Amino acid sequence: MMISRKNLLLVSLIILLIAFISLNREKTIKIAFVGTLSEHWSQLAIESRDGFMIAVDDINKNGGVLGKEIEVLYYDDRNDLDHAKSLKSKFKDDGVKLVSGFHISQMKEAVDYIMSNNDDILFVSPTMNSHTLLGIDDNLILMMSSANQQIPPIVEAMLSNHVDTLMILYDTTNYGFSVPFANSLKNYALEKNIDVLPLVEFNLEHEKNNKLLNHITNNNPDGIYFVANAIDTAELTQMIRNAGIKSLFFAPSWSDKSTLIEHAGNSLDNTYITGYFDKFNKSIEYIAFEEKYIERYGYRPSYSSMYGYHSMLVLAEAMEKSRSTNPLKVKEAILDIGTFNGLQDSFSIDQYGDATGKIYLYRIDNGKFHYAK
After folding, report:
1. Cα–Cα distance for residue pair 36/87, rounded to 1 Å
2. How far is residue 313's CA from residue 337's CA, in Å, rounded to a whole number?
3. pLDDT tens digits for 139-172?
4. What's the DSSP call for residue 172?
5. Per the omega criterion (within 30 degrees of 0), is the bond before 202 cis?
6. How many angstroms separate the Cα of 167 from the Cα of each of 181, 229, 269?
7. Does domain 148-275 have CATH number 3.60.140.10?
């Protein structure tokens, strides 16, 4: 059977197109971004993604990494461990070897599952920071320092405000962070002679608020600490203030989101909150980042925005140093570099891939954050 000249030309064009597409793919470096981009808690990963993309754009505009542009592949873990674990096969099919994510500490189980029998993948998490993740030699790099760094300054604020009885409320839907953190806070506060009531777990997705409110009313503590995200903390503070309870409020960086004050309003007045992010930083690098961020997204960056940016920064610098995209070589380069210049300040990553950084203490008054004195 003879092939017509027309058909031969068509086949040749198709072959050339396939070769062109393949060549273009080879000209990019694939970096996966994974987090909860829908469902409950999406704000944390969305703001991290937004900061991550500012870094990607900055890098690509300056020639990329190893002469190649960064190509980002997005994955939504849906805040579901089973779904997150199912991404193992998806990563393999898509040729993913370098990942920015996951974002909440309970997803360490998914990281371990994906890494099982597979050293050919490296995770750089912008915001996972439970102290239970520290000191482990694995393919997980943590951008934020230990959550327990927040405990001494917040307890000092409690003592300064004469908090004698403390109630700790913790959200069970991020148990990988909330349970160990709540227990660490409890033990430290007890050492400082604060009377800590039995820990109170909650899940606002499934729980009726009346039962929780009655428990708070019956105990009437001097202080209440919320181990929860911004939306849940805002809902709880409004509910408690509307019931006439005058307890002082305290919260970790997990609650430190733009939506906190937006949803809670004046119920947050005189609330103390810790953070890994200087809200009033005036460094040239940070101001430039903030201006780009606001222009692109229409809102101010948060701590997860900055650490999302840092995750890409660290990966890029390590790829350039190692002259490779091999996960083990990139990890080795990260540990070898050790200290990185961040948007606000330098930060260090130790031999286990765990970061160290500064903690800031804020007080909220009249709907605004202030440095706590």
Report:
1. 13
2. 12
3. 999 999 999 999 999 999 999 999 999 999 999 9
4. G
5. no
6. 14, 17, 18
7. no
